[in-house]
Design goal:
Blueprint lengths: L3 E2 L9 H9 L19 H18 L5 E7 L3 H11 L4 E6 L2 H10 L4 E7 L22 E5 L1 E2 L4 E2 L10 E5 L16 E5 L9 E7 L17 H6 L9 H16 L2 H22 L4 E2 L10 E5 L3 H13 L2 E2 L10 E4 L6 H18 L2
Parallel strand pairs: 1-13, 3-4, 3-5, 5-8, 8-9
Antiparallel strand pairs: 2-10, 6-7, 9-10, 11-12, 12-14
Helix pairs in contact: 1-6, 2-6, 3-4, 7-9
This protein binds pyridoxal-5'-phosphate.
Length: 360
């Protein structure tokens, strides 16, 4: 029996996608072999890759002057690739709104001067600071954000005014959850295991004029964007099977109304949970309401023992991976594209019941 999996990542995938992968596991179309066993130089795999690229282009209306890359090493490798490729003046501005942007800033320090131009660490990343009038560093090569902080459950809803600097964004945990205007970014990327496919793969969308030949010295061939744009993500053996699953997810999204429809479904799910939290006498959300993520909702009871009891009972009732990140504690419900409305509705019912049984 499949459970309601609220994991922050790797996370729930659409059942239809898993079923199709299952049906094609032994023989992909008429090839007589699994996608896992296929040459990445074969016609069949090229078709999988190029179709996946076209489908994500369609979903996000990616302008023609952007390249789409399917790269290995997850999102974390991008924390290094971005500065290695883009820090031409060896300086960048980072907006730190949670664990992931903080880690990205930390990594970038290996390569140059990192200025933290805004931060919400003073209140344990429970809000998004004002980004309307930032002190942008004149020599900064880019301004970096993590648009949806998976651990802390905040979303940057209005992009920062970068005053003409390139905006670079990590959208791992909100990728394809709603439409996005790619033209506002110089580079936007995400690990796919939050909303799209299996872990290990990152999708990078990069504007043509940022694909440089001259990058920081000592940048390995594998970590140069140009290597991969020149080779159309086929420089070395890519994560073939992951790309195939991502492609199935793109088809699933397209068949279900695209990203406008996904946004409506996701907002409806988040609304029932946040409405409940706002009216609950036991549970409360930890994020300032206007900055709340539609994807990741952290909440607490205010009593660690009661949190632990809730997590245990929720698990027994089939609501899995509801425990908050180790750095924050409490609970967190991740409600990615593939989480059905029913899953969140049932979780809320369960929380109501728990509240009535445990309210002193
Ligand atoms: C999960 C996550 C990462 C790290 O992804 P890996 O693939 O494990 O490297 C980075 N950024 C965000 C926003 C994430 O949610």
């Amino acid at each position: 029996m499949r459970v309601f999996n609220f994991s922050a990542g790797p996370a729930v995938l659409p059942e239809e996608v898993l079923r199709q992968a299952q049906a094609e596991m032994l023989e992909y179309k008429d090839t007589g072999m699994s996608v896992m066993e296929m040459s990445h130089r074969s016609k069949d795999f090229e078709e999988i890759l190029f179709t996946a690229e076209q489908d994500i282009r369609d979903l996000l209306s990616i302008p023609e002057n952007y390249k789409v890359l399917f790269l290995q090493g997850g999102a974390y490798t991008q924390f290094a690739m971005i500065p290695m490729n883009l820090m031409r003046n060896k300086a960048a501005d980072y907006i730190v709104t949670g664990q992931w942007s903080k880690k990205a800033a930390q990594e970038a320090k290996i390569f140059g001067k990192v200025n933290i131009i805004a931060s919400s660490e003073d209140k344990n990343f429970s809000y998004v600071p004002d980004l309307s009038n930032l002190n942008i560093t004149p020599e900064a090569d880019y301004v970096y954000i993590c648009q949806n902080e998976t651990v802390h459950g905040t979303t940057i809803k209005k992009l920062p005014d970068t005053k003409g600097k390139i905006l670079v964004a990590d959208v791992s945990s909100m990728f394809l959850s709603e439409p996005m205007d790619v033209s506002k970014y110089g580079l936007v990327y995400g690990g796919v295991q939050k909303n799209i496919g299996p872990a290990g793969l990152a999708i990078v969308i990069i504007r043509d004029d940022l694909i440089y030949d001259e990058v920081l010295p000592f940048t390995p061939t594998m970590l140069k964007y140009k290597t991969h744009t020149d080779a159309k993500s086929l420089f070395n053996t890519p994560s073939c099977f992951n790309i195939y699953i991502c492609g199935l997810t793109f088809k699933w999204l397209k068949a279900n109304g695209g990203l406008e429809a996904a946004k409506l479904r996701n907002e409806a799910k988040a609304k029932i949970l946040y409405d409940f939290l706002d009216n609950s006498k036991l549970f409360k959300g930890t994020v300032r309401p206007e900055d709340r993520s539609v994807m990741n909702a952290p909440f607490i009871t205010g009593d660690k023992e009661l949190d632990a009891k809730f997590i245990k009972e929720a698990d027994l009732a089939g609501f899995k991976n509801i425990k908050g990140h180790r750095s924050v504690g409490g609970m967190r419900a991740s409600m990615y594209n593939a989480m059905p409305y029913e899953g969140v509705a049932k979780l809320v019912e369960f929380m109501k019941k728990f509240e009535s049984e445990n309210l002193k």
